[in-house]
Design brief:
single chain, mainly alpha, Growth Hormone, Chain: A, 16 helices, 2 strands, globular, MFS_dom, cell membrane, Inner membrane transport protein YdhP
């Protein structure tokens, strides 16, 4: 009995073309999944590195004898370094192969994380956070550029959904485990664990990632001219506006959810992890589904459905009265899911809106815009929110209304964003077999 996995024997010189094409397709799909797993692992480490600093605040303030303002500098130094580095990288990143650039940036990120772990003083920790942010801020854009190069349009939404589920895994596993290490073994240990996790991923990525250098055949301009070109293309500006609106709308609310739940809704601090675990689990299961639906029914269609829903949930969360904990967890979890869903659809649209030879620089610039916009959103919300003598937060509902309005404005940018032609937007991800 013949083996169904072997090509049937044909006369010498003849080729079973359907079987050969099936083999190439199978190898391509396998390569795509390996690349996606590597990218998701890198996303996980970078997300946990950024997020875990915030709940470590009390320990850092005790260890370095600093106040809230100094701790705020530890957090914001990462964000602003990420934004500036993204702008610089956007002008030169397309001069290198995707693999070389990605591996170099990830190695720099791990070095910065290691320096965070061993920083003996406050200012050295701030410097280490600046270095980590400079590299970590570019990783997200590079990952999306690689997704855009490797995955064709009909599978890009699902790939984006899988990659963005790294946020959910970070919420469910990474941050709670990091807090456990920090609480029991000191604030250094979460950073040590991230380096220990990242080094094997770096080694695997060295062998797993394809060169992805087809864009190098294109003529590149001077870095400053490249930066000007990136920000002078009207379609790019629409994409940046879409990203900025989503990040401002989200980060005007997200950083203040925890204190609002404790001060106004009546939750205990010990119950807060349930909010993030529940939201992360919901996102973990829903994000891939949203990605597939975006491939089936269209990215813009899914965005036009999910973005208004997230706008309504922003209002719901910021006006949430004292309610049972389970209800509060459900509402905030739904907001997390809707925020992730709108970003999946939006990022898939944005990735397909730029020519392949410009994608690396563009996505770096877009990541930079996202970091800056998130900082703007959090800062503006801080100017609006006040704290009453009894500790409750006031005017959070006003922030929710503003965030809702900005989110709805993103619909205009999404509708106006155009997609690059099919022949321009997909690069060959594997060597041709001939």
């Amino acid at each position: 009995m013949s083996n169904p996995y072997e090509s049937p024997v044909l006369p010498q010189g003849e080729i079973n073309e359907p079987f050969a094409l099936a083999q190439v397709e199978a190898r391509t799909r396998t390569m795509e999944w390996v690349v996606l797993l590597v990218l998701a692992s890198v996303q996980f480490t970078s997300i946990v590195d950024f997020v875990v600093v915030m709940p470590l605040g009390p320990q850092l303030m005790r260890a370095f004898k600093i106040g809230p303002a100094e701790f705020g500098l530890i957090v914001s130094s990462y964000t602003f370094a990420a934004g500036i580095a993204g702008l610089v990288a956007s002008s030169i990143i397309d001069r290198f192969s995707r693999r070389t650039a990605f591996l170099s940036i990830f190695a720099g990120f791990l070095l910065g994380t290691l320096l965070c772990a061993v920083a003996p003083t406050y200012w050295l920790l701030v410097a280490a956070r600046i270095l980590t942010g400079a590299f970590g801020g570019i990783l997200g854009g590079m990952a999306m550029a690689i997704v855009g190069d490797v995955f064709p349009e009909n599978r890009r939404g699902a790939a984006t959904g899988f990659l963005m589920s790294g946020f959910a895994v970070a919420s469910v596993v990474g941050v709670p485990f990091g807090l456990y290490l920090g609480t029991n073994y000191g604030w250094h240990m979460p950073f040590v664990a991230l380096v220990a996790l990242g080094l094997p991923v770096l080694v695997i990525a060295t062998f797993a990632l394809p060169p992805l250098n087809a864009h190098l055949g294109k003529k590149h301009t001077h870095p400053l001219r490249s930066l000007v070109n990136t920000f002078s293309e009207p379609n790019h500006l629409i994409a940046f506006a879409l990203s900025a609106a989503l990040m401002i709308g989200g980060f005007a609310v997200i950083p203040y959810i925890s204190p609002y739940l404790v001060a106004n809704v009546g939750m205990r601090e010990s119950q807060l992890p349930f909010v993030y675990v529940a939201g992360g689990l919901l996102t973990l299961f829903v994000a891939p589904v949203v990605g597939k639906l975006a491939d089936w029914y269209g990215k813009l269609t899914m965005f036009l459905i999910i973005a208004p829903l997230s706008a309504v949930l922003l209002i719901a969360v910021t006006f949430l009265p004292p309610v049972p904990t389970l209800f509060a967890v459900l509402v905030v979890g739904c907001l997390m899911v809707s925020n992730a869903g709108r970003m999946i659809a939006a990022m898939a649209m944005i990735t397909g809106s730029v020519r392949p030879e410009l994608r690396g620089g563009f996505m770096s610039a877009n990541a930079s815009m996202q970091h800056i916009a998130s900082g703007i959103g959090a800062y503006l919300a801080g100017l609006i929110i006040t704290q009453a003598p009894d500790g409750k937060l006031e005017h959070f509902g006003t922030v929710g209304i503003v965030a809702c309005g900005i989110t709805l404005l993103s619909l205009i940018a999404a509708v106006r964003l155009r997609k690059v032609g099919e022949t321009e937007e997909v690069l060959v991800a594997v060597p041709e077999h001939g």
